[in-house]
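Input sequence (477 aa), recorded before submission:
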Amino acid sequence: MDINTLTIDGARALVESREVSARALAEAHYAEIESRDETIGSYLTLTKERALAQAERIDCLAEKGDPLPPLAGVPVGIKDVLMTRGERTTAGSRFLEKFVAPYDATSVEKLEAAGAVCLGKLNCDEFAMGSSNENSAFYPVRNPRDTTRVPGGSSGGSAAAVAAGFAVATLGSDTGGSIRQPAAFCGVVGLLPTYGRVSRYGLIAFASSLDHVGPVTRTVKDAATLLEVIAGRDPMDSTSADVPVEKYSAACGRDVKGLRIGIPKEYFGEGLDPEIRQAVEQCIDGLRNAGCEIVSVSLPHTEYAIPVYYIVATAEASANLARFDGVRYTTRSPKAKTLADMYRLSRDEGFGAEVKRRILLGTYALSAGYYDAYYRKAQQVRTLLTRDFQNVFTTVDAVVTPVSPTVAFKLGEKANDPVSMYLSDIYTVTANLAGVPGISLPCGNNHEGLPIGIQILGKHFDESTVIQLAHAMEQQL
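Predicted structure, token format:
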């Protein structure tokens, strides 16, 4: 059994046949984590008692010959911005270093109801704010493909854990590319569902109109299977959509002949690494050879995506993070002598530099005299970006683009240049602003052997077509 190549179907089959028990599968993953994760840094907390209790339940079902749920015995990891009842949930921040969640996020609850074994909580940029996973308050995550490089962010722990063999699949969150970019950097698959497709209940909010919960896996089919489990209307989340959940895994293997694929010229301009361009164009040629019609399209407001995103996201972060004040569930400064001191010192000591930067940016954008010039204007341009996608999807079935302008960069390379760091999300933030679904999957390696990712974006609630195309591309590669 090579746990570095196990898929969901493979892990479940081992448990169902009783060739390997769910407990043994979990213990094998823990052995890998304890042996090698000190170098990678993908986990912040291991939840062994919870995991082994779930594994025992699955093994009892298998011994009785009872039907097993779809994720029976499958070892998974959870990004540490999702609540897990009775377990430490830190969001990668000193502010929540000792916080124990009182309830489960809906997506976690659904995973465990489907038989998944949750191994632990995964490292991430603090409050999911970052593109490199260097902003974790505890320690950075390193890329398993090259430990001198970043795994991407903010779901760097989620992508690294799958790539390193520390979990069969993981959950991440994506506010501006935080599932897709790490997946591309680590050579795995990352799926962004349509906004509202997966409940955000129990997700520690960064930017509520942009946050998505989604899977990171080894294969496209695994991502489809996980989405089937976690998708659906949730009365606990007013933004979750009452739209039927399809059998997404059935889209894998479906013929792509006749599908119209849009190639937006704005995503292939200046700043794109030539090796990434070449790899993406080869995949596009593969789709053409499979019978897809390739169409040049334009998303004309793309050039405004980064400034719009960093106004909307920081404004919402400023409002959401106001609750972290040292009063309730967060760390309180021991130096405080007055109420004003408690607020000021607790926030100063609890938040890291990047979180402070974004709170300040957002507070400024929302302040009197600047609201109309910045926040209102950004929301107006966001509407234009959304209309760009709506217009394009009247003529094509999906859009194919690069995921990032570069491959994984060196640790510390962009740490002191936030603008350069923000620009690494230039091809991913548009999907969050428009609320459309997307997927990142590996499409080759550069001359240094570093993974290159390709992105497929689809119509609202049309994850099936995105998965259909991604699976066809995966099979060609």
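Checked by second reader. The chain has a mean pLDDT of 96.
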